[in-house]
Amino acid sequence: MVIFEMRRLWLLPILACTLLVGACTTPTAEHNAAALVPVQSPNDDREYRYLELDNKLKVLLISDPDTKKGAAALDVYVGSAQNPVDRAGLAHFLEHMLFLGTDKYPDAAEYEEFITEHGGSRNAYTAFEHTNYFFDIKHTSLEPALDRFAQFFIAPRFDAEYVDREVNAVEAEYQLGLKTDGRRNLDVLREVVNPAHPFSILGVGTKDTLADRAEAPIRESLLTFYDRYYSANLMSLVVLGQESLDELEAIVRPMFGAVPNKERQVERIEQPLYLPQTLPSLVYIRPEASQRQLQLSFPMPDYSDHFRRKSLEFVAHLIGHEGEGSLLSLLKSKGWAETLSTGAGLRYRGGSAFGISITLTEQGMVQREQVLYAVFQYIEMLDQAGPSEQLYREEGQIADIQFRFRESGDPIGYVAGLASDLHVLPPAEVLRGNLLMDEFTPEEIQAITRDHLQPEQAVITVIGKEVPVDRQSEFYFTEYSVIPVPAESAWLAVASDNIDASLHLPAPNAFIAEDVSLRP
Q1: How far is 85 from 201, CA to CA, in rounded Å?
Q2: Looking at residue 216, what DSSP letter applies?
């Protein structure tokens, strides 16, 4: 089992199954009338149907007569963000325990054996706001696999005899990360953020955080968490098979319609990611491996409802582009940097964070104050130039071409991703929402550069073997230090009339195809 601290695989600069099958029934006209067909790529010949079951469980059905594997994923819109303060890793522990037997199929090994014996695989992951369970299997065995899968969300046993074993499995995952710099860096981030923010709680868990207590045995905490959050209205399901859409619906409705709807709600996270009085701050981290990194993190609003705008992604593209006039081009010309990446690594109900990560050369490590000055020069240049509608439309065109010619991925990865997306994208746009960019909003774009990507709101992290450290993080024993940003730091006040002349917006892209239709 895999746990992800962040929804995206890009590491934020130092901040990152089975359906219960019952008797087949014929979908009613009323049910079919409520079904919805998402917008799909012209290159995609699968058939889709979105529907919401009576228990409020969201379902996307995919019919692919040519698939060799059936697949399904169920995503619970709950993750490590919901861990109790005194039970770090509880969501991850539940993910482990859920697979171990149900009232209908009590043998703890039965599900895994059935999937494996029929040519499939299964897994799950726990992220900050998502817990995702998924499997694939030989297409002829999809229905009985779904029957086993659904029971995990209807009547899991959580047998006490497996508690110690799975606590040890979680501990093994934790131990495995002790020498992994990504996990070690995240442990520092956990201690740097606002202690009242859920990100400050360890996500993976350990044998100590999951230990029995006289007043609260871990199994009791697990049952309370499951009852509190595992509700059909917080779940989304994606099923892909060779069967027709009507056949898939006839299988899924009775199986997953039995998942209890407890009408649970998850509150938005209102606490700021960083305490205002701690910004800006400078963090030094000493890694295990030899590396030189400069990372900047900025707290951001929640832009999840603005998926058609992609304002944050557009700014990330401008800062991260590598052509003439780019920040990376300037840094390379000085011999200071090797690579640069940008993006929103942490998104959650209530906020997000934007990161810039730069791999430095030896000289760049020495000149990191100048590197920071160049970063904020580029941001100041963006603010002065203002949002470019032409560049925005170009990115939208490229995204549209990517969607138009999107190739079918492997079934298991495809259903897992869509199950997660069903929580954050409207059903009609779940297939293309991540590549839809057609609402140019200049005031929102300018607010990102002018109001949020400012020096006084930055957490600057320097990762290197020679940095000064004075403490260790609690769980991963990462050596680090946190110091106030010196008031004389030049990058705190980049002059608007002192921007390097080599920095400018990307030139228009003359190579974007206007007509991608095939000739006879």
Answers
A1: 7
A2: B
Does the annotation count 95 as an active-site position?
A: yes
User: Using omega within 30 degrees of 0 as the cis cutoff, is the peptide bond preceding 144 cis?
Assistant: no
Nearest one of 51, 382, 510, 426 to 248, comparing CA atoms: 51
Which token pair is 461?
Answer: 């992290």
Extract the tokens encoding 307: 């998926």
pLDDT per residue over 36-51, tens digit each? 999 999 999 999 999 9
Which positions ≥6 away from 212 have C-beta within 8 Å? 218
Residue in 5, 95, 243, 313 annotated catalytic: 95
From the list 428, 397, 365, 363, the residue with the least C-alpha distance to 515 is: 397
Please, what is the average pLDDT of the chain?
92
Backbone phi, then psi, for 56, in 5-degree steps? 75, 10
Per the model's pLDDT, the better-predicted residue between 33 and 58 turns out to be: 58
Distance in angstroms (rounded) separating the CA atoms of residues 157 and 99 = 9
The closest of 210, 209, 228, 227 to 219, measured between CA atoms, is 210
Rounded CA-CA distance 514/292 in Å is 42
45's CB contacts (< 8 A; 6+ apart) are none
93 to 115, 166, 503: CA distances (angstroms): 22, 7, 49
User: Do strands 459-463 and 293-300 pair parallel, antiparallel, or not at all (unpaired)?
Assistant: antiparallel
Contacts of 213 (CB under 8 A, 6+ apart): none
Strand order in the sheet with 69-76: 2-3, 121-126, 131-138, 69-76, 235-241, 58-63, 47-52
Span 263-277, average pLDDT: 96
Give the alpha-carbon dihedral of 198, 15, 303, 34, to 10 degrees: -60
- pTM value is 0.90
- Which strand (E) or helix (H) includes residue 49? strand 47-52
DSSP class of residue 452? I
d(CA 299, CA 346): 9
Q: What is the pLDDT of residue 517?
A: 82
- Higher pLDDT pick, 26 / 113: 113
Per-residue burial over 52-80, b if 16 or more Cβ lie within 10 Å, else e, is bbebebbbbbbbbeebebbbbbbbbbbbb
